Amino acid sequence: MxxxxxxxxxxxxxxxxxxxxxxxxxxxxxxxxxxxKGLGLQTYTLGPELYAGNLSDNLARIRKMGxxxxxxxxxxxxxxxxxxxxxxxxxxxxxxxxxKIVSSHVTPDVLMAGLFSRPGAPAPKPKAxxxxxxxIKEFWKPVAEDHAKLGCEYLVQPMMPPMRxxxxxxxxxxxxxxxxxxxxxxxxxxxxxxxxNHNMEMAKVTETSTAAVLGxxxxxxxxxxxxxxxxxxYMDNTDPANVIxxxxxxxxxxxxxxxxxxxxxxxxxxxxxxxxxxxxxxxxGAMNFKNIFEKFYANGNKYxxxxxxxxxxxxxxxxxxxxxxxxxxxxxxx
Length: 334
Ligand code: MG
What we know:
This protein has 334 residues and is α/β, with parallel strands linked by helices. 42% of the residues lie in helices and 15% in strands. The chain has a domain at 3-10 and 34-109 and 130-161 and 173-200 and 241-328: Divalent-metal-dependent TIM barrel enzymes (TIM Barrel, Alpha-Beta Barrel). The chain has helices at residues 3-26, 55-64, 87-96, 109-112, 133-150, 168-189, 216-223, 230-236, 249-254, 259-265, 289-298, 316-328; strands spanning 39-42, 67-72, 75-76, 81-82, 85-86, 100-105, 154-157, 192-196, 204-205, 228-229, 243-248, 270-275, 304-306. The termini are far apart. Residues 5-21 have low confidence and may be disordered. Bound molecules: magnesium ion. Magnesium ion binds at residues 196, 248, 274, 276, 307.
């Protein structure tokens, strides 16, 4: 064999070895499905599907996906009900299916009163945040008592009135309401109060701004160096003992912010997460769930809740099953 033929043979051998190697690697390992993790669900996700047919059967289906913790939506402060059920009946159905009610989302009526008017109706005149303090305190007392009966560890306010926080002063007034709410909830029931963000809290304001501005580029240009992110004003002006923060990672991204940067910078304030994507978890590839979960656990936290929008789609159970499978086959979720 001359040198030329040897090299030819050697390269063929290498190609053959490479091909064998690729064939071996081309057989994907079966994904390990672990349904014994700390998955949580924000029940808002299921919309009417949660109550279609029999609630207990639907909760059993949720539990089978590996979901152990619930965060409720749909509490009614006037009728003391959850969805269409009494608190006792809902609690029993959850317990019968080995589901723990960890948290619940509740918005004080007074916050949204006067914000929305029908066409042709007089312009609404919402109360100033400063004038709501007593009403807010009274609202939370019976709500906290109800949620103590449910065994909740957390009561979370899911939003703020849109378009009302236009400068730092208003943001501080709203933070004061959160603080008062947390103090009242804790004193009444021992339950920890929290706040959940959308993208509007990631907008910036200044002392003199007349509108909040979303996005670093434009807020930097429009509002200058003194601009503060509303969520930061809330964190800086609430007592950590009174108010924890539940970061919705999808809405944080929609607010042009990085959830991992928030989990790093505000490790002492963010205690729970909403795990959310554009629709089915993991499908968009836009959410860096691995880094999010790793930082969240490193901070010493455990409770997170899956949330999926489009609640009237009729496809929510299907989407939830796909989302739970994504988390159950992702080794960064424990
Ligand atoms: Mg959310």
